[in-house]
Amino acid sequence: MFPLAGAVAVVTGAASGIGAALAEALAARGCHLALVDRDAVGLAATAGLCGAVTVSTHVLDIADRAAIAALPDAVLAVHGRVSVLVNNAGVALGGQFSQLSLDDFAWLIDINFWGVVRMTHAFLPILSAQPVAQIVNLSSLFGIVAPAGQTAYAASKFAVRGFSESLRAELAETGVGVTVIHPGGVATAIARNARMGQFVQQDPETRASASARMDRLLRLPPAAAAARIVQAITRRERRVLVGRDAKVIAFIQWLFPVSYHRVLQMLTR
């Protein structure tokens, strides 16, 4: 079991959604926090929910290489150590592959994948200095299945999964564990805040309709997702499916690794 009381966790994407709920849940276990997000207002609001633990806030863009390189020193100056790294920050991108520019694609990969890699590279020496430490990388259900219209997002989340599994194997003989999380439909604002591809032709009414459909699929409260992730940290689990939809769809993918698209279409008609 991983002892969270008195631990220090770095959480990215902490201004809202799963990240904010995770911060609150970790604080309730007595875990001190270094919260990271580009949204200063949201970050301050999350910090205000974290009670009596020591909380530092760090306003930066997770795609900013220089800012990430400087972050460990800033965190150590407040907390002195880090034993948990939660790479949660992420963005979404709307449109079929033919509707995306290469700049669109690179923007998402730079945050969703390279953000995880850079944060891990920056903090791994600090984590390795602890007797026990845990890296928690948020992939997605779309790191297990890859639906149409999600080429960039699925590519990034499959990459996070592959990176995490390989890193776990490399660290197997150390005190640093790696947990990869695959949430299903969690009720966050990521879909509403998605950037649209450069060549997407979509009127406001169509986009609002698509957003409403997505909201109906994103039903699991962030607090419920956070509770499951905190449990996974304490148990040092390797892979976690969050939500019933994630478990069902992952099982279908396991049964039909090539034809799961067709099977899922049949089930949702």
Q: What order do the helices and strands come in, and which of them pair?
A:
Elements: E1 8-12, H1 17-28, E2 32-37, H2 40-47, E3 55-59, H3 65-79, E4 84-87, E5 93-94, H4 102-112, H5 114-128, E6 133-138, H6 151-170, E7 176-183, E8 195-196, H7 204-217, H8 222-235, E9 239-242, H9 244-255, H10 260-267
Entry keywords:
seven-stranded parallel beta sheet, single chain, 269 residues, alpha/beta
CATH topology description: Rossmann fold
Shape: globular
Strand content: 15-25%
Number of strands: 9
Number of helices: 10
Task: Give the overall pLDDT as a whole number.
Answer: 91
Instruction: List SSEs in N-to-C order.
Output: EHEHEHEEHHEHEEHHEHH
Number of domains: 1
Question: Summed up, what is this model?
Answer:
The protein has 269 residues and is of the alpha/beta class.
Task: Please provide a written account of the structure.
The structure is a single chain. The protein has 269 residues and is of the alpha/beta class. The protein has a single domain, classed as NAD(P)-binding Rossmann-like Domain (Rossmann fold), CATH 3.40.50.720. The protein is 48% helix and 16% strand. The chain has 10 helices and 9 strands. Strand 6, helix 6 (151-170) and strand 7 (176-183) form a beta-alpha-beta unit. The termini are far apart.
